[in-house]
Design brief:
The protein is an alpha/beta fold. The protein folds into 2 domains: 4-116 and 267-275, Aldehyde Oxidoreductase, domain 3; 121-264, Alpha-Beta Barrel (TIM Barrel). The protein contains 10 helices and 12 strands. The strands form 3 sheets. It has a 6-stranded parallel β-sheet. Strands 3-5-1-12 form a 4-stranded antiparallel β-sheet, with helices on one face. Strands 2-4 form a two-stranded antiparallel sheet. Helix 9 links the parallel strand 9 and strand 10 (234-238). Helix 1 (4-18) packs across helix 3. The longest helix has 31 residues, at 89-119. The chain starts with a helix and ends in a 6-residue tail after the last strand. 37% of the residues are buried. The mean pLDDT is 95.
């Protein structure tokens, strides 16, 4: 995931944290001072962002040598070493917080996604993310979702048609919004419509929507809507789906469950950097 956008994010983060230099580290350590360090998991987690963290160190100083020990998407136990770093001490410590911020955030999302994926193992349903991501970090956070075993919904507004409640309100009707999108969208594009009531479910079916998103419905309401849809469209569940309620929505006829909790509610994973005492290999 080291793309030009990722490098830009790293540079922004480093400018934010060390744009004026690292007064403490530069005061203590001369340029010739060298150290070795490692980043390890302080909890059981799914690793994500090792290469990004490595890039942070080398962006600060190419003289820093970094070895990634664990591939993204790997489950590890507490105490597992993820990266090893060696080189100029001041540069190593300057990069520490930014590197940890990236790997902690991304590993947190991957770990969260793994919990969701494990909870639906064996079910014929996909758990997907949403666009509720940290501004600028969407590609990285959606990559973390995949590393955790879940799937991505659209990454931008331009990927496919999704007619939501405000589109319907502004257009005047669901049917009109579908008709206009059908006329403008590429021939291969599917039309997805958000429905919040039984009447909207029926209207979406009549309008020919290929995907119907049942928004903020209870499991009982979902079951009733699935009967109305009767296989005429793919069924997506969204709105307030949390880990605690996830299995309540594993109902026959449900194809996709989308949850913003995969990203916006994922706690940062606990990882730490330890500098080895001088002379210790």
């Amino acid at each position: 995931m080291i793309t030009p956008r990722t490098l830009h994010l790293i540079d922004l983060a480093l400018e934010e944290d060390a744009g004026l230099g690292d007064l403490t580290s530069r005061a203590i350590f001369p340029a010739r001072h060298r150290s070795r360090a490692f980043i390890a998991a302080s909890q059981d987690l799914v690793v994500c962002g090792g290469e990004v963290a490595a890039c942070v160190f080398q962006r600060v100083d190419p003289a820093l040598q970094v070895k990634v020990l664990v591939a993204d998407g790997t489950r590890v136990k507490r105490g597992t070493e993820i990266l090893r770093i060696a080189g100029p001490t001041a540069a190593l410590l300057t990069a520490e917080r930014t590197a940890l911020n990236f790997i902690q955030r991304l590993s947190g999302i991957a770990t969260q996604a793994r919990r969701f994926a494990d909870a639906v193992a064996g079910a014929k349903v996909r758990i997907v993310d949403t666009r509720k991501t940290t501004p600028g970090f969407r590609a990285l956070e959606k990559y973390a979702v995949r590393c955790g075993g879940c799937f991505n919904h659209r990454s931008s507004l331009g990927e496919h048609v999704l007619i939501k409640d405000n589109h319907i309100a502004a257009a005047g009707s669901l049917t009109k919004a579908v008709r206009l999108c059908r006329a403008a969208a590429p021939h291969a594009a599917k039309i997805e419509v958000e429905a919040t009531t039984p009447a909207e479910v029926r209207e979406a079916c009549a309008a020919g929507a290929e995907v119907i998103l049942l928004d903020n419905m209870t499991p009982a309401q979902v079951a009733a809507a699935v009967k109305v849809i009767a296989g005429r469209a793919l069924v997506e569940i969204s709105g307030g789906v949390r880990f605690e309620t996830l299995r309540d929505y594993l109902l026959p006829g449900v194809d996709v469950i989308s949850s913003g909790a995969l990203t916006h509610s994922a706690p940062a994973a606990d990882l730490s950097l330890t500098v080895l005492p001088s002379g210790k290999k």
